[in-house]
Amino acid sequence: MTVQTMLITGAASGIGFGVAKAMAQKGHHIIITDINQARVDDALAKLAKEGLNACGYPLDVTSIDDLERLMANIENIDIDVLVNNAGIQHVSRLEDFPMDKWQLILDILLVGPARTCQRMLPKMRAKGFGRIINIGSIHGLVASPFKSAYVSAKHGLLGFSKVIALETADTDITINTICPAYVKTALVEQQIADQAKQHGMSEAEVVDKIMLEPMPKKSFIDIEEIAHTVEFLASSHACNMTGQALVLDGGWTVK
Questions:
Q1: CB–CB of 136/129 below 8 Å?
Q2: What is the pLDDT of residues 69-88, one digit of tens each?
Q3: What does UniProt give as the signal peptide span (predicted)?
Protein backbone atom coordinates (compact mmCIF):
# COMPACT_ATOMS: atom_id res chain seq x y z
CA MET A 1 0.00 0.00 0.00
CA THR A 2 1.23 3.47 -0.88
CA VAL A 3 0.86 5.84 2.05
CA GLN A 4 -0.88 9.02 0.96
CA THR A 5 -1.50 12.43 2.46
CA MET A 6 -5.22 13.18 2.43
CA LEU A 7 -6.92 16.48 3.20
CA ILE A 8 -10.61 16.24 4.04
CA THR A 9 -12.97 19.19 4.39
CA GLY A 10 -15.85 19.11 6.86
CA ALA A 11 -14.06 16.24 8.58
CA ALA A 12 -14.97 16.84 12.22
CA SER A 13 -18.19 14.83 12.03
CA GLY A 14 -20.39 12.63 9.86
CA ILE A 15 -19.09 11.26 6.59
CA GLY A 16 -15.94 13.37 6.70
CA PHE A 17 -14.92 12.08 10.12
CA GLY A 18 -15.78 8.51 9.16
CA VAL A 19 -13.58 8.72 6.07
CA ALA A 20 -10.77 10.35 8.05
CA LYS A 21 -10.90 7.60 10.68
CA ALA A 22 -10.99 4.79 8.13
CA MET A 23 -8.11 6.22 6.13
CA ALA A 24 -6.05 6.84 9.29
CA GLN A 25 -6.62 3.20 10.24
CA LYS A 26 -5.12 2.28 6.86
CA GLY A 27 -1.99 4.23 7.76
CA HIS A 28 -2.51 7.29 5.58
CA HIS A 29 -1.53 10.78 6.72
CA ILE A 30 -4.74 12.66 7.45
CA ILE A 31 -5.34 16.40 7.55
CA ILE A 32 -8.71 17.26 9.05
CA THR A 33 -10.33 20.61 8.33
CA ASP A 34 -13.59 21.99 9.62
CA ILE A 35 -15.24 25.34 10.19
CA ASN A 36 -13.51 26.19 13.49
CA GLN A 37 -10.59 25.07 15.63
CA ALA A 38 -12.80 23.68 18.41
CA ARG A 39 -14.42 21.19 16.04
CA VAL A 40 -11.04 20.25 14.61
CA ASP A 41 -9.56 19.72 18.08
CA ASP A 42 -12.52 17.57 19.12
CA ALA A 43 -12.11 15.35 16.06
CA LEU A 44 -8.37 15.00 16.59
CA ALA A 45 -8.96 14.05 20.24
CA LYS A 46 -11.43 11.33 19.19
CA LEU A 47 -8.92 9.90 16.75
CA ALA A 48 -6.11 10.07 19.33
CA LYS A 49 -8.21 8.06 21.79
CA GLU A 50 -8.19 5.27 19.21
CA GLY A 51 -4.45 5.57 18.69
CA LEU A 52 -4.80 7.31 15.35
CA ASN A 53 -2.63 10.21 14.28
CA ALA A 54 -3.84 13.19 12.29
CA CYS A 55 -3.37 16.92 12.14
CA GLY A 56 -5.97 19.58 11.53
CA TYR A 57 -6.71 23.19 10.70
CA PRO A 58 -9.81 25.38 10.69
CA LEU A 59 -11.29 25.98 7.25
CA ASP A 60 -14.51 27.70 6.30
CA VAL A 61 -14.65 26.73 2.62
CA THR A 62 -16.58 29.93 1.82
CA SER A 63 -13.71 32.07 3.09
CA ILE A 64 -10.82 32.96 0.79
CA ASP A 65 -8.84 34.16 3.83
CA ASP A 66 -9.33 30.83 5.61
CA LEU A 67 -8.20 28.94 2.53
CA GLU A 68 -5.10 31.09 2.16
CA ARG A 69 -4.19 30.51 5.82
CA LEU A 70 -4.61 26.79 5.30
CA MET A 71 -2.40 26.83 2.22
CA ALA A 72 0.27 28.68 4.18
CA ASN A 73 0.10 26.07 6.96
CA ILE A 74 0.49 23.16 4.53
CA GLU A 75 2.96 24.89 2.23
CA ASN A 76 5.58 22.18 2.72
CA ILE A 77 3.13 19.28 2.51
CA ASP A 78 2.24 17.54 -0.73
CA ILE A 79 -1.47 16.71 -0.77
CA ASP A 80 -2.06 13.48 -2.68
CA VAL A 81 -5.81 13.31 -2.10
CA LEU A 82 -8.33 16.09 -1.61
CA VAL A 83 -11.73 15.02 -0.31
CA ASN A 84 -14.33 17.77 -0.71
CA ASN A 85 -16.89 16.83 1.90
CA ALA A 86 -18.01 20.01 3.71
CA GLY A 87 -21.75 20.53 3.52
CA ILE A 88 -24.93 21.79 5.09
CA GLN A 89 -28.62 21.30 4.39
CA HIS A 90 -31.82 23.31 4.66
CA VAL A 91 -35.24 21.86 3.96
CA SER A 92 -37.94 24.26 2.84
CA ARG A 93 -40.25 24.93 -0.08
CA LEU A 94 -38.81 27.62 -2.33
CA GLU A 95 -41.43 30.22 -1.40
CA ASP A 96 -40.21 30.10 2.21
CA PHE A 97 -36.51 29.45 1.52
CA PRO A 98 -34.28 32.25 2.89
CA MET A 99 -32.18 33.41 -0.05
CA ASP A 100 -29.13 33.95 2.14
CA LYS A 101 -29.35 30.27 3.16
CA TRP A 102 -29.83 29.27 -0.49
CA GLN A 103 -26.66 31.17 -1.41
CA LEU A 104 -24.71 29.73 1.52
CA ILE A 105 -25.53 26.16 0.50
CA LEU A 106 -24.21 26.80 -3.00
CA ASP A 107 -21.14 28.56 -1.62
CA ILE A 108 -20.28 25.58 0.58
CA LEU A 109 -21.29 22.68 -1.67
CA LEU A 110 -20.26 24.00 -5.08
CA VAL A 111 -18.06 27.10 -4.86
CA GLY A 112 -16.13 25.59 -1.94
CA PRO A 113 -14.85 22.60 -3.94
CA ALA A 114 -13.97 24.90 -6.83
CA ARG A 115 -11.89 27.04 -4.45
CA THR A 116 -10.03 24.12 -2.89
CA CYS A 117 -9.37 22.51 -6.27
CA GLN A 118 -8.10 25.77 -7.72
CA ARG A 119 -5.56 26.18 -4.92
CA MET A 120 -4.40 22.57 -4.72
CA LEU A 121 -4.29 21.58 -8.38
CA PRO A 122 -1.04 23.44 -9.22
CA LYS A 123 1.01 21.38 -6.73
CA MET A 124 -0.70 18.17 -7.85
CA ARG A 125 0.11 19.04 -11.45
CA ALA A 126 3.72 19.86 -10.57
CA LYS A 127 4.05 16.47 -8.86
CA GLY A 128 2.24 14.67 -11.67
CA PHE A 129 -0.26 13.01 -9.34
CA GLY A 130 -3.47 13.88 -7.56
CA ARG A 131 -6.83 12.49 -6.59
CA ILE A 132 -9.82 14.76 -6.01
CA ILE A 133 -12.83 13.04 -4.50
CA ASN A 134 -16.07 14.93 -4.03
CA ILE A 135 -18.69 13.68 -1.61
CA GLY A 136 -21.79 14.29 -3.66
CA SER A 137 -25.24 12.82 -3.18
CA ILE A 138 -27.95 10.84 -4.86
CA HIS A 139 -29.44 14.30 -5.22
CA GLY A 140 -26.82 15.05 -7.81
CA LEU A 141 -28.80 12.66 -10.02
CA VAL A 142 -32.40 12.96 -8.85
CA ALA A 143 -34.51 15.56 -7.09
CA SER A 144 -36.64 15.68 -3.96
CA PRO A 145 -39.02 18.43 -2.91
CA PHE A 146 -37.96 21.13 -0.42
CA LYS A 147 -34.25 20.84 -1.31
CA SER A 148 -33.87 23.25 -4.22
CA ALA A 149 -30.50 24.66 -3.13
CA TYR A 150 -28.94 21.33 -2.17
CA VAL A 151 -30.11 19.55 -5.33
CA SER A 152 -28.91 22.41 -7.50
CA ALA A 153 -25.48 22.40 -5.85
CA LYS A 154 -25.04 18.64 -6.07
CA HIS A 155 -26.09 18.58 -9.74
CA GLY A 156 -23.61 21.39 -10.36
CA LEU A 157 -20.83 19.47 -8.62
CA LEU A 158 -21.12 16.67 -11.18
CA GLY A 159 -20.83 19.12 -14.06
CA PHE A 160 -17.89 20.84 -12.41
CA SER A 161 -16.11 17.51 -11.95
CA LYS A 162 -16.54 16.61 -15.62
CA VAL A 163 -14.91 19.86 -16.68
CA ILE A 164 -11.96 19.42 -14.30
CA ALA A 165 -11.56 15.83 -15.49
CA LEU A 166 -11.03 17.17 -19.01
CA GLU A 167 -8.68 19.90 -17.82
CA THR A 168 -6.49 17.39 -15.94
CA ALA A 169 -6.59 14.55 -18.47
CA ASP A 170 -2.98 15.22 -19.52
CA THR A 171 -1.57 14.02 -16.20
CA ASP A 172 -2.23 11.44 -13.46
CA ILE A 173 -4.87 13.55 -11.74
CA THR A 174 -8.44 12.37 -11.42
CA ILE A 175 -11.63 13.86 -10.04
CA ASN A 176 -14.69 11.81 -9.18
CA THR A 177 -17.85 12.21 -7.13
CA ILE A 178 -19.31 9.66 -4.73
CA CYS A 179 -23.10 9.88 -4.76
CA PRO A 180 -24.64 8.06 -1.79
CA ALA A 181 -28.28 7.85 -0.89
CA TYR A 182 -29.13 8.69 2.73
CA VAL A 183 -26.36 8.12 5.27
CA LYS A 184 -27.35 8.13 8.95
CA THR A 185 -25.43 11.21 10.08
CA ALA A 186 -26.34 14.20 12.25
CA LEU A 187 -27.12 16.12 9.05
CA VAL A 188 -29.64 13.49 7.98
CA GLU A 189 -31.10 13.22 11.49
CA GLN A 190 -31.92 16.93 11.27
CA GLN A 191 -33.42 16.40 7.82
CA ILE A 192 -35.76 13.78 9.25
CA ALA A 193 -37.17 16.32 11.70
CA ASP A 194 -37.35 19.06 9.07
CA GLN A 195 -39.06 16.85 6.51
CA ALA A 196 -41.55 15.58 9.06
CA LYS A 197 -42.58 19.20 9.55
CA GLN A 198 -42.73 19.99 5.84
CA HIS A 199 -44.66 16.85 4.91
CA GLY A 200 -46.92 16.77 7.97
CA MET A 201 -45.94 13.24 8.97
CA SER A 202 -44.06 11.49 11.76
CA GLU A 203 -40.29 11.07 11.71
CA ALA A 204 -40.72 7.29 11.36
CA GLU A 205 -42.90 7.87 8.31
CA VAL A 206 -40.24 10.15 6.81
CA VAL A 207 -37.65 7.39 7.15
CA ASP A 208 -39.91 4.69 5.69
CA LYS A 209 -41.88 6.60 3.05
CA ILE A 210 -39.41 9.25 1.87
CA MET A 211 -35.86 8.19 2.61
CA LEU A 212 -35.96 4.41 2.20
CA GLU A 213 -39.00 4.01 -0.07
CA PRO A 214 -37.07 4.80 -3.31
CA MET A 215 -34.35 2.27 -2.43
CA PRO A 216 -35.07 -1.36 -3.33
CA LYS A 217 -32.56 -2.44 -0.67
CA LYS A 218 -34.35 -0.34 1.99
CA SER A 219 -31.18 0.49 3.87
CA PHE A 220 -29.19 3.55 4.83
CA ILE A 221 -25.73 3.73 3.27
CA ASP A 222 -22.95 2.94 5.72
CA ILE A 223 -20.05 5.37 6.06
CA GLU A 224 -17.63 2.44 5.67
CA GLU A 225 -18.99 1.88 2.16
CA ILE A 226 -18.08 5.46 1.31
CA ALA A 227 -14.64 5.13 2.93
CA HIS A 228 -13.84 2.03 0.88
CA THR A 229 -14.90 3.87 -2.27
CA VAL A 230 -12.60 6.76 -1.34
CA GLU A 231 -9.77 4.27 -0.86
CA PHE A 232 -10.29 2.82 -4.34
CA LEU A 233 -10.57 6.21 -6.05
CA ALA A 234 -7.39 7.37 -4.30
CA SER A 235 -5.41 4.41 -5.56
CA SER A 236 -3.40 3.90 -8.73
CA HIS A 237 -5.98 1.29 -9.76
CA ALA A 238 -8.43 4.12 -10.50
CA CYS A 239 -6.05 6.11 -12.70
CA ASN A 240 -8.43 6.00 -15.68
CA MET A 241 -11.60 6.65 -13.74
CA THR A 242 -12.24 10.37 -13.86
CA GLY A 243 -15.20 12.70 -14.16
CA GLN A 244 -17.47 9.92 -12.93
CA ALA A 245 -20.32 9.69 -10.44
CA LEU A 246 -20.05 6.54 -8.29
CA VAL A 247 -23.56 5.87 -7.10
CA LEU A 248 -24.20 4.09 -3.79
CA ASP A 249 -27.98 4.17 -3.73
CA GLY A 250 -29.37 0.71 -2.96
CA GLY A 251 -30.89 0.57 -6.45
CA TRP A 252 -32.67 3.94 -6.29
CA THR A 253 -31.73 5.10 -9.79
CA VAL A 254 -32.08 1.80 -11.64
CA LYS A 255 -35.85 1.77 -11.48
A1: no
A2: 999 999 999 999 999 999 99
A3: none
